[in-house]
């Protein structure tokens, strides 16, 4: 399955529906009520503040007695303070609700864990996920939280502008048009600056990835000796400096764009103020405006500027964060292969696996890794896949168990097309131990059973550990099977040796009790004799199951019923060990070469022993 796909973009309203639907789903209707209350109070408060001077002036010229004037003004101020308190309180509640909403937003992790593995591993999938992460993990100033806040702020600014604009427009449409024109030009300047900044931020993504790589490699314990012996610290420092300088330069260019837009906006605002306030003073001098009305319009005109500026600032923020929302939702819909719905004919029993003219090419590669391969693996058969590194052995395994979909051709499981079956059902039939053996930093029991704590079958767990030869070690651990692996999540965790890790993986495969067991060079770090012994131990444990063994050491899989020798994604030889040796082809030559090498190495070890 190829995973080439352009970035998908979504209408703005679609993002709003999605965001606030998720907010209600995760935080309840109370969060939406808090947001609505914040909008209403945030519009009301500035209007009351702008009208205060005019209200006081109106009371002073109303001819009322001083006591009545004082009571009216005091009542107005009390109302203003109550609204101010409520607005501040609702804003705090809104900020908290949106922050908790972002923190609890698990769709990115859920998608990563459940999506098609082939798509996730691809360069495009990694790029899309990296872009999507910015929407959640960039703090509350960017991404999902800022997008939701920006929408609410835009509603506030728009409602305020509508009210204030109506008041100004009733007095003078020309004055309103002038205010709107200045605001539009200012917003346009800021929009250009915002687009430039976002483009530069996109360029900085690779810079941040490079920094992350350098930081990770510079502190990795296994790299310390090479860094110091070969004086690579100078190289690291130079690379750090170059990437940091590039990032800072792009950030500075983005800031300069906003500074230029701000200077232009301030110049326009100065010219507008000279004209508008001159107009209002002239109107009052001519007697067209009373003092209270003049004071009201001064506040309202200033408010129009603030609302208009706030509206375009909110729109700018929304535009910038919309790009992140696009990236996020694009990733959520990326790499979803169509799930099959057909029922498996023989679940939990031996399977025949058949490949017909299967080819596979990785994304971005011109040369296929697997070429037009036709193969049948019989139920209960012991099959070995051998060959040099890069022959396509691991890729073939991923095709066999449904992790990858062929670029061409079909993989059948008991005659059923693999893609017509549910991946969950297919994965249940395979126990695979890959090259990079490692333990998750969870309790040992969960590493073996791969189920949540308390749901494992304790008898089956112990039996698997005993057969794998690890029970004695586990019994000596502080918490037995509940001992955490490593110390990432538990300071009392333990780390197993390489050989013990091999046994842990064997225990996992035994516990799963799947009808097909695949070993993809999990013993590559062992010496040839130890690897051969480990493979034979695996073979004895899985009994009547189908076993597929992979190794680049040909001597390790002599016990198998059939051996396939792969080169460049093709089966070049096939047969038993004896038959292939008698044939004298590529397998025999490589086996003889390896045997001489290991014999020479053993003789040297005996000499120096």
Provide a descriptive summary of the structure in words.
With 609 residues, the chain is α/β, with parallel strands linked by helices. The chain starts with 11 loop residues before the first helix and ends with a helix. It is elongated, with a radius of gyration of 35 Å. It has 20 helices and ten strands. A hairpin with a 2-residue loop joins strand 4 (408-413) and strand 5 (416-417). It folds into three domains: 12-332, ABC transporter type 1, transmembrane domain (ABC transporter transmembrane region fold, Up-down Bundle); 353-438 and 515-608, 3-Layer(aba) Sandwich (Rossmann fold); 440-495, no CATH class. The strands form two sheets. The protein has a six-stranded mixed β-sheet with strand order 6-7-8-3-9-10, sandwiched between helices. A four-stranded antiparallel β-sheet has the order 2-1-4-5, with helices on one face. The longest helix has 53 residues, at 233-285. The chain has helices at residues 12-27, 29-60, 66-103, 107-114, 117-121, 123-137, 144-171, 173-219, 224-229, 233-285, 291-332, 393-400, 423-428, 444-449, 458-467, 471-475, 498-512, 528-542, 577-583, 586-608, and strands spanning 353-360, 370-377, 382-386, 408-413, 416-417, 430-433, 516-520, 546-551, 562-567, 570-575. Helix 7 (144-171) packs antiparallel against helix 8 (173-219).
């Amino acid at each position: 399955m190829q995973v080439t796909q352009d970035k998908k973009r979504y209408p703005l309203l679609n993002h709003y529906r999605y965001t606030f639907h998720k907010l209600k789903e995760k935080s309840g209707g109370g969060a939406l009520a808090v947001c609505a209350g914040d909008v209403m109070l945030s519009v009301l408060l500035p209007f009351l503040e702008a009208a205060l001077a005019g209200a006081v002036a109106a009371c002073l010229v109303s001819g009322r007695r001083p006591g009545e004037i004082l009571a009216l003004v005091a009542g107005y101020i009390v109302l203003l303070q109550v609204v101010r308190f409520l607005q501040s309180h609702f804003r705090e509640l809104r900020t908290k609700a949106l922050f908790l909403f972002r923190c609890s937003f698990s769709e990115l992790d859920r998608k990563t864990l459940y999506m098609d593995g082939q798509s996730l591993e691809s360069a495009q999938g990694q790029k899309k996920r990296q872009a999507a992460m910015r929407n959640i993990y960039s703090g509350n100033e960017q991404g999902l939280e800022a997008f939701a806040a920006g929408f609410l702020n835009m509603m506030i600014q728009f409602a305020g502008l509508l009210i204030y604009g109506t008041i100004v427009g009733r007095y003078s449409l020309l004055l309103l048009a002038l205010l709107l024109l200045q605001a539009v030009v200012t917003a346009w300047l800021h929009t250009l600056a915002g687009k430039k900044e976002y483009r530069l931020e996109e360029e900085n993504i690779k810079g941040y990835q490079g920094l992350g790589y350098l930081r990770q490699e510079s502190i990795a314990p296994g790299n310390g000796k090479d860094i110091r012996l070969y004086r690579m610290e100078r190289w690291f420092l130079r690379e750090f400096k170059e990437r940091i300088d590039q990032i800072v330069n792009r950030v500075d260019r983005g800031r300069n764009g906003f500074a230029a837009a701000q200077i232009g906006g301030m110049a326009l605002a100065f010219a507008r103020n000279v004209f508008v306030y001159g107009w209002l003073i002239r109107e009052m001098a001519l007697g067209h405006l009373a003092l209270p009305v003049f004071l009201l319009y001064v506040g309202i005109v200033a408010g129009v500027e603030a609302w208009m500026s706030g509206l375009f600032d909110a729109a700018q923020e929304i535009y910038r964060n919309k790009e992140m929302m696009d990236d996020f939702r694009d990733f959520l819909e990326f790499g979803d292969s169509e799930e099959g719905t057909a029922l498996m004919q023989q679940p939990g029993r031996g399977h025949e696996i058949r490949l017909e003219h299967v080819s596979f090419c990785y994304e971005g590669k011109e040369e296929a890794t697997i070429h037009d391969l036709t193969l049948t693996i019989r139920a209960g058969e012991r099959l070995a896949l051998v060959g040099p590194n890069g022959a396509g052995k691991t890729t073939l395994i991923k095709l066999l168990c449904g992790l990858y979909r062929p670029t061409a051709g079909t993989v059948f499981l008991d005659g059923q097309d693999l893609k017509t079956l549910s991946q969950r059902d297919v994965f249940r039939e395979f126990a695979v131990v890959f090259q990079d053996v490692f333990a998750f930093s969870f309790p040992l029991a969960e590493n073996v059973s791969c189920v949540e704590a308390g749901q494992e079958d304790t008898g089956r767990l112990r039996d698997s550990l005993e057969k794998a030869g690890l029970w004695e070690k586990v019994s000596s651990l502080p918490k037995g099977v509940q001992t955490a692996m490593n110390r990432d999540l538990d300071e009392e965790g333990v780390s197993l040796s390489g050989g013990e890790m091999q046994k842990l993986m064997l225990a996992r495969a035994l516990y799963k009790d799947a009808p097909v067991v695949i070993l993809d060079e999990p013993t590559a770090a062992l010496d040839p004799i130890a690897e051969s012994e480990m493979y034979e131990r695996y073979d004895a444990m899985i009994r009547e199951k189908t076993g597929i063994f992979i190794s680049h050491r040909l001597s390790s899989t002599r016990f198998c019923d059939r051996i396939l020798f792969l080169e460049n994604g093709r089966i070049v030889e096939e047969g038993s060990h004896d038959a292939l040796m008698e044939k004298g082809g590529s397998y025999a030559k490589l086996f003889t070469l390896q045997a001489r090498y290991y014999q020479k190495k053993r003789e040297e070890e005996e000499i120096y022993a």
